[in-house]
C-alpha cells in the first residue's frame, strides 16, 4: 500500500518561515565579522567543497544540528552555548528555515536565517572563500 503524505516539505518550510526571522542577503552580509553573531552554514560538506564557503562561518551539518545545540548531548558544540545571534543558511533557504525553526524551538535565541541561502548571498556580492 502506498504512503499517504499529508504535509508537504514546502508546507513545513512555509510554517517555519512564519515563525522565524528571515534576513535579506544584504542584512546578513552586514553581520560578517561581528563579535555578536555566528553565521551557521548547514550545507553538506560536499556543497561547501563544490561551491565555496562564507569566511568565518561555523559549519554544522544539518543532520547534527539538534545534537550540537543540546548541551546534554555528547555531541554538543560550545559555539552554541555562546550569548550571540545565530544566523543559519543553506544553499537556497529551505533547509535553513527548518533548522532555524528547530533551533528556536529548542531554546536557542536569538536566531534567524538568510532568505535565499548561499545562492542569494553570492548573488548579492557576499564574500566567498574558494572551495577546499
TrEMBL record:
Domain Rhodanese as annotated: residue spans: 33-130
Which GO terms fall under molecular function for this chain's record?
Answer: thiosulfate-cyanide sulfurtransferase activity
Q: Name one Pfam family in it.
A: Rhodanese
Tell me which PROSITE patterns the record gives: RHODANESE_3
Q: What is this protein called?
A: Rhodanese-like domain-containing protein
- Print the organism lineage: Bacteria, Pseudomonadati, Pseudomonadota, Alphaproteobacteria, Hyphomicrobiales
Gene name of the record: glpE
Amino acid at each position: 500500500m502506498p504512503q499517504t503524505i499529508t504535509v508537504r516539505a514546502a508546507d513545513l518550510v512555509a510554517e517555519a518561515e512564519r515563525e522565524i526571522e528571515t534576513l535579506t542577503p544584504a542584512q546578513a552580509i552586514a553581520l560578517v565579522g561581528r563579535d555578536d553573531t555566528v553565521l551557521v552554514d548547514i550545507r553538506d560538506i560536499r556543497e561547501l567543497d563544490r561551491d565555496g564557503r562564507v569566511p568565518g562561518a561555523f559549519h554544522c551539518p544539518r543532520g547534527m544540528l539538534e545534537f550540537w545545540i543540546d548541551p546534554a548531548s555528547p555531541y554538543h558544540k560550545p559555539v552554541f552555548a555562546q550569548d550571540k545571534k545565530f544566523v543559519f543558511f543553506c544553499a537556497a533557504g529551505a533547509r535553513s528555515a527548518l533548522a532555524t525553526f528547530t533551533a528556536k524551538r529548542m531554546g536557542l535565541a536569538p536566531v534567524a536565517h538568510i532568505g535565499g541561502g548561499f545562492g542569494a548571498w553570492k548573488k548579492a556580492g557576499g564574500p566567498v572563500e574558494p572551495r577546499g
